[in-house]
Amino acid sequence: MRLLHTGDLHIGKRLHEVSLLEDQQFILQEIRRLARAHQVDALVIAGDVYDKTLPPAEAVSVLDAFFTDMWRDGIPVLLVSGNHDSPERLGFASRLLTHGGLHIATELKADPQPWSFSDGKSRVQIWPLPFVRPASARAALGDESLLSYEQAVRAMLARMQQDADCCQVLLAHQFVVSGSTEPERCDSEQLSIGGVDQVDVSAFSSFDYVALGHLHGPQQVGRPTVRYSGSPLQYSFSELNHHKSAVLVELGPGHQVKWELLPLQPLRRLRQIRGPLQQLISPEVVSAASAEDYIRAILTDEEDLLHPMDQLRRVYPHIMQMLFENSRSGPGLQADSSPAQPEKDPLTHFCDFYLQQQGVEASEEKRNLVRKLLAQIGEERL
Ligand SMILES: [Mn+2]
């Protein structure tokens, strides 16, 4: 039995006001390509399917198209809800969809049932565990004593009647830690302060493989077969060094587990460039292949620059962010585009805009025309 494990798709996510939908569509097709190439028996998605509880319509369409493609390919998709998902919305029609090979679990149940698969050689039980909050576990189990995440998750796991003859897989979206080892974190995750949502990895000892979602960097927790697949795309500039992947899991007879990371190549990477403006936009630095990336530019110029963002955008059409690092900004980065500038009069604004649009200075004749118009507007206002 082969599974492909991914999670934290965050479909519909915007980064620095840029929609990542095209990138997400692309990476979903990459995931599909890998699932076909490795002839997997199922794709498992470990929560945070959407980025928002109320996803935009385009995000729903993208996911709908992907699920349809997977159905056409005959590859079942199994998913649980994460903390970003609305259980009710994501779980819409799930009892019907299960007949089409789309298995969605968003509700905590007092009598959980596994998804069972067999390829003739080995049998696998995959247990879905939608994102557990103590309050939702208390409601599902009618047990008011469940106060912590750790207690809540352990209580939910205790309800699973595992068949010891089958390979045991858990599909979950929680913050799992191993003792006092700090996991690798990044800025695109939403975790509780102080680690109240932590669950120790020892809770999962009865599972052969635990497919986790929640942390966006691919990593194991405690043992190699308890893993976060990580998000399929970089979702913050703190993930510049992440090389994203999906996990190919092979489950054999006798609880054998083999796994392998399959690299995911995005349409555009997040990339940071640093230096003086003229250098960053020089043809030697802008190589055609990387100019399409999502860029964070850190400008080290000391002198004032004329519309640096526009100059950058001309060569890096997908620039996301521009920061300054010079003696005025101090040792740290100065957020935002430009240093404070004195208020400009409307005529100067016009001339700057003209230069930017036309590439030449506005002639004296045009300036006079604008002066006249501005004067008229001024009079009308009075
Ligand atoms: Mn997430």
Poorly predicted parts: 336-341
Averaging pLDDT over every residue, what do you get? 90
Structural class label: alpha/beta
Count the DSSP helices: 11
Which molecules other than protein and nucleic acid are bound?
A: manganese (II) ion
Helix content: 25-40%
| Content of β-strand | 15-25%
> Would you report the number of β strands?
19
Task: Please write the CATH class name of the largest domain.
Answer: Alpha Beta
The coarse silhouette is elongated
Specify Rg, calculated over alpha carbons. 26 Å
What is CATH's topology name of the largest domain? Answer: Purple Acid Phosphatase, chain A, domain 2
Distance between the termini: 79 Å
Strand order of the largest sheet: 6-5-4-1-15-16
Number of domains: 3
Largest sheet: 6 strands, mixed
Describe the structure.
- By secondary structure, this protein is an alpha/beta fold.
- It has three domains: about 1-265, Metallo-dependent phosphatases (Purple Acid Phosphatase, chain A, domain 2); about 270-340; about 340-380.
- Helices cover about 30% and strands about 25% of the residues.
- It has a six-stranded mixed beta sheet.
- The chain is elongated and about 85 Å long.
- Manganese (II) ion binds near residues 8, 82 and 214.
